[in-house]
Every structure is written in structure tokens, then in C-alpha cells.
Amino acid sequence: EKAGHKHFMAKEIAEQPIVLADALKAYSSNDAKGIALPSGTIDFTKCDRITMVACGTANLACQVAKYWFEQIAGLPVDVDIASEFRYRKPVVSDKSYALFVSQSGETADTLAALRYAKERAAMILSVVNVPESSIARESDLALPIMAGVEVGVASTKAFTCQLLALAALALKAGHQRGHISDAEMAKHMDDLNLLPGILNQSLSLEKAIERIAGKIASAQDVLFLGRGSMFPLALEGALKLKEISYIHAEGYASGELKHGPIALIDKTVPVVVMAPTDELFDKTVSNMQEVMARGGKVVLITDAEGAKEASDGVWQTIVMPTISPFLAPILYAVPAQLLAYHTAVAKGTDVDQPRNLAKSVTVE
Ligand code: M6R
């Protein structure tokens, strides 16, 4: 049932091009020029804000979605951790939609947060992998991510499928609210249609990433840096690494480096920089140079153009396929997953069942 892979996590990483293609089909309109939701309809012109709540990796998917909704749809988004949201007495207006993201649909804090919002928000949306779950059942509209069963405790394909569903929602919202034209929408759809193939290409970097993971396995601490929608990916890279390899890892917004974490940098600390060429690339590169000037060992994850421009003095470079900046967070999940996976394998930890963790956290 691991389909020839050593671990469920490896199988689930490898499945991503296929499940993403299925999910994309489910979210595409018949003429493939726009988004059609697989279940029900939403009118994003009727809300003035979206409150997104989730835990762990699902929360990081929400953090990416915040960049998307604000940029593509001009809609303000709050992102919260469910265990904080549920007890903080947050202000939820009746003009806002509340959106809950959960692979299992059974996470206790997320479900409690949903019940709190139900009394207050105009609509309860959820993005779930398990359609018959409690969170799906208690939502006004549950959107499936179509990842299939995810066994590995470390979420991989569910994360990229959550991102795909959230990207589709952001595009739908942008189009409904007149922020993107028909032509812009069609261009985004073309980009989306290229995504499964590009993701597949990125899987061929596995051997190169495995070699780098072998070198990272002896580290005590690893930092991940990213800017813009790559910031949540830096957080995800760090979360994945710590949960399965037990190496201490932190994700930071590149611009925060000078505000504290740069004090940690020395030659023993690998720093993974996630930097596709986009409008923020040069800024991220200058943060990366500050790391190198202090002896930090940089693993740069970028595309061919970025590698040409910035790989001087870099310890290791992972050259990703080129992708539209909007979809980069989905693609850059792959090297983050592979790096964590192979580091854990090199350390000999229990990849699919890491210590102290449960697949679904159904108690507080
Ligand atoms: O089932 P959920 O998506 O609600 O689970 C949320 C988190 O527990 C989950 O994403 C967790 O952080 C993963 N182990 C991360 O890999």
C-alpha cells in the first residue's frame, strides 16, 4: 500500500502531481477559463473580510492564502491559530466569512473555533480532506481538497491540495469582486494547468535534495527564510523538518533576520532560503548575503534565473523549475518536504509516525 515507497510520506509526496491535477479539474469551469467550485456557490461580493482559522500546516496554508486574497481580491484576511482564536473572544463581524482549513476535519481546536464563529460570521466555509468530517458537516459550505487518504503524520499532499483549493477561492473572489478581468483569470487558469507538470519536474530533484539532506542531518539548528508568500513556506519547511527529523528549526520572514535571529548565525547553522525570482527576490538575496557574511551556510532554493544571479558563495543551490510567482508557494512546498524527509531518513527516525505526534489532534 506504500506503492513501492519506503514510507507513506514518500508516496504522498510523489502523488502530488496526480492529486493536484484531479483537484484542479474539480475546481475548473467546463470551458477551463475560470473557477467553478465542486460543491455549492459563494458570493464574495457579500463579505468585507475573511477570518481563516486552522492549526499546524493547515494554518500555514491559510497564511499563504492571506497573501493571495489580499493581492488578487482586495479582501482583508485575518489568520488565526485555532487554539488562540477560540479563547480570545475575537471580534467576528456579521459581514465576514469564516474559513476553517483542516485535513482531518476533526481537529478539536479548529472545530471549537468554528462553533464560536458560527454564532457570528455571515458564512462558515471549510476546506477539508475528509468530506464526512465534523468540520465539513458543521459548515455552510465544505470545499474538498481531494488529496485522498493521507497516512503520514507529516502533512504533504494535503498541504499542496489545501493551497490549490485556496488559490481557486482567491481567484474566484478576485473575479467576482472585479479585481481581475476575464483575461487575467484565463491567464491564471493557464498557469494552474501547467502546475501538475511543473511539480512533477521538481520531483526529479529528489536525488540532489537527498545529498543536501545528508549534510544537514548533523546540524543542531536550521533556519528557513522567505519573503512575501514564501514566508509561510519558510515556516512550513521548518515545521516539517522539526516534526520528523527532531532537528530544531525556525522559519522567519527574511526581513526579520536583523531583528534577532541573525545572532544565531555561524558556520554550524544551515540557512535555507526560499527565493523564486519575483519582485522581492533582490531583497531576499541581500538578507542571504548578510547570512553568508557571518559564515552561515546557505541552501538557496530558487529557479534558473535566480541561481544565475545569486548563487555565488552559496553552500548548496537547489534549482527549481520556473513558475508564475502566484503559484510558487505550491511548488516550493516540494523541496521543503523532500529536505525534511531525507534528513529524517538519514537520521533514521520514524518518518511516518514521529514521536509524540498524532495524525489528528482530537483533544486540546
Ligand atoms: O487535520 P488538520 O489539518 O486539522 O491538522 C492540523 C495539524 O495538526 C497538522 O497540520 C499538523 O501540523 C501536521 N502534523 C503537520 O505536518
UniProtKB/TrEMBL annotation:
Output the Gene Ontology cellular-component terms.
cytosol
Q: Where in the cell is it found?
A: Cytoplasm
Catalytic residues (positions): K359
The catalysed reaction is: D-fructose 6-phosphate + L-glutamine = D-glucosamine 6-phosphate + L-glutamate
- Where does the SIS domain start and stop, copy by copy? 40-179, 212-354
One of the GO biological process terms: amino sugar biosynthetic process
**What's the EC number here?**
2.6.1.16
**Alphabetized GO MF terms:** carbohydrate derivative binding; glutamine-fructose-6-phosphate transaminase (isomerizing) activity
Keywords in UniProt for this one?
Answer: Aminotransferase, Cytoplasm, Glutamine amidotransferase, Repeat, Transferase
Summary of the function given for this chain in its UniProt record? Catalyzes the first step in hexosamine metabolism, converting fructose-6P into glucosamine-6P using glutamine as a nitrogen source.
Summarize the subunit comment: Homodimer.
Write the protein's name.
Glutamine--fructose-6-phosphate aminotransferase [isomerizing]
Q: Which residues of the full protein are shown?
A: 244 to 607 of 607
